[in-house]
Hints:
Elements: E1 5-14, E2 17-26, E3 29-35, E4 38-45, H1 50-60, E5 70-75, E6 89-94, H2 115-125, E7 137-138, H3 139-151, H4 154-159, E8 163-169, E9 174-180, H5 183-196, E10 205-209, H6 215-223, E11 228-231, H7 237-246, E12 249-255, E13 258-263, E14 268-269
Parallel strand pairs: 3-6, 7-14, 10-11, 11-12
Antiparallel strand pairs: 1-2, 3-4, 5-6, 8-9, 8-10, 12-13
Amino acid sequence: MSRVTARRRMRRISPTGEIQRPDTLAVEEPLEIRIGGESLAITMRTPGNDVDLVHGFLLSEGMIGVAEEIMAARYCAGTDDDGRQTYNVLDLTLRHPVPMRPKNFLTTGACGLCGKTALDEVRTLSRYPIAEGGAVVDTQVLSGMTDTLRGKQFLFEATGGLHAAGLFTTDGTVLAVREDIGRHNAVDKVIGWALRQNLVPARDLVLIVSGRASFELVQKATMAGIPMLGAVSAPSSLAVDLAAESGLTLAAFLRGGTMNVYTHPDRIVVTPNDTSMLA
Length: 279
């Protein structure tokens, strides 16, 4: 398989002087997703867990609802400039035909939608609407999930250049963690894993991400029926709007035992010594 890290020489400059040495970097390579030989999308990703990625991506786009709808996923042969085998084209065989989108509709992390159109689109596409209840979590447990996620970001530790997403049970047990240079790919990978494990709709699970909570990440959680999303950094305004519309609990700035809860706080139970946490 393709490497997930690479070594490059660099010149390090600091107040005490400068040195030249190799540095470990996260690999970024394109993945072309094909269906029946026809190009569907190209995304820049960190190689690894590509089958999970395409399952999560197709679920997020409303093209599949269960793992069995993908009958086969095969890499197409290819080589790089040094003659090494590459794994950058994945051709899928689906059980049923699906409408194809423009070839360039996934080239960045942007959602390509905006405002009310975006909210209506996601609400229409989701096969797994989020119902009231589910995934009730104690504040201390929720805070501990970010520490657990950080402890499993092994590629980030080596490179400092990867995002992570993790799926947790309500008692804080981590089920899966995926890392990628793109935050949306990390989420697709972990949701795709859940789909392949028959855990979707994930009505009793919590999704934790290492960075900010964008509209697209809320969209992906909603499409998988995940009722709670926690982020280490800030949410966007449209992410909060979509979470409110979809019934998803969105908590952000999960750092050091504090958090901001923006939508549907009823799923978060404040422990007695954390009464100021949700202020």
